């Protein structure tokens, strides 16, 4: 019996599989009309399974809204926001291969009104516009200057809401932090004990590598994430899955003393 040729209707899938393979490896497993981009992902069906655990804290209807997806990777969250009706989605990332993945994914799914650009979070001011929803998921701990990134987002692109996620380590407790910190425990020369409380806001500094990745620099505890968000001028409205926060823009604490973000000048001779 003759071996049947692959049918014509399989050819578009073959072409899509080759395009996916050409851009591998993928960090986002996205279902492109039946073809998965990373079916053997080490975290399982990622990030769809994670999204399912916090999707309820994101507005279900984004009709007419604009979204900025910072560190968009292959565009999983950009796609999900389009599915919720967002009119315009801009995804930025510092890695061209991920941006090519994101373009392939949105093209394959037929989404319009999505734009992907190579831009660092430190350069968001160059966008020259604000967005109804900023997504800043999975990027903070990769940065050497995490609070600066939050300050820049708050100053230049966040108009109303921000969906935020970070790697966290340490206690999930939230300690009651005093309004002001005395040098010593009252009546002693002892340092205040609360700095060592598990729920005191902390950022663990990772000098070497975390999970074999040298780009992981920081791991806040839950109190640290929330305190940093507040310090940058975001109020936390909801928390889900332990490390995901839905925030609104709020006044920047101590903002009356001047802008929070800094803009280091580049010297002419640096290498
Ligand atoms: C762990 S992935 C998170 C991807 C996606 N946001 C998510 O939550 O699934 C981190 C992403 O941030 C990007 N990234 C790292 N540093 C960045 C920077 N300075 N500006 C913009 N994107 C950055 C990486 O290229 C990568 O795509």
From TrEMBL:
One of its GO terms (biological process) is methylation. Pfam families: Methyltransf_9. The keyword Secreted does not apply. The keyword Membrane does not apply. One of its GO terms (molecular function) is methyltransferase activity. InterPro entries: Meth_Rta_06860, Mo5U34_MeTrfas-like, SAM-dependent_MTases_sf. Keywords: Methyltransferase, Transferase. It comes from the Bacteria. This is TIGR04290 family methyltransferase. It comes from Sphingomonas olei. The lineage of its organism: Bacteria, Pseudomonadati, Pseudomonadota, Alphaproteobacteria, Sphingomonadales.
């Amino acid at each position: 019996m003759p071996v049947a040729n692959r049918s014509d209707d399989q050819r578009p899938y073959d072409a899509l599989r080759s395009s996916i393979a050409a851009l591998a490896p993928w960090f986002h497993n996205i279902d492109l009309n039946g073809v998965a981009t990373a079916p053997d992902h080490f975290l399982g069906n990622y990030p769809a399974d994670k999204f399912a655990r916090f999707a309820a804290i994101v507005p279900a209807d984004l009709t007419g809204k604009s979204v900025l997806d910072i560190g968009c990777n292959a565009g999983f969250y950009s796609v999900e926001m389009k599915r919720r009706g967002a009119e315009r989605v801009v995804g930025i990332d510092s890695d061209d291969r991920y941006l090519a993945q994101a373009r392939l994914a949105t093209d394959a799914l037929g989404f319009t009104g999505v734009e992907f650009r190579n831009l660092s979070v430190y350069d968001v001011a160059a966008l020259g516009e604000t967005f109804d929803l900023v997504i800043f998921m999975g990027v903070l701990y990769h940065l050497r200057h995490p609070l600066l990134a939050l300050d820049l987002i708050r100053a230049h692109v966040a108009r109303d809401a921000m969906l935020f996620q970070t790697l966290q380590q340490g206690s999930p407790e939230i300690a009651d932090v005093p309004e002001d910190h005395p040098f010593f425990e009252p009546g002693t020369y002892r340092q205040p004990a609360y700095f060592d409380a598990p729920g005191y806001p902390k950022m663990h500094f990772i000098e070497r590598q975390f999970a074999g990745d040298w780009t992981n620099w920081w791991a806040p505890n839950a109190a640290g994430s929330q305190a940093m968000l507040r310090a940058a001028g975001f109020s936390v409205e909801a928390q889900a899955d332990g490390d995901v926060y839905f925030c609104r823009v709020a006044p920047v604490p101590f903002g009356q003393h001047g802008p929070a973000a800094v803009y280091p000048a580049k010297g002419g001779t640096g290498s």
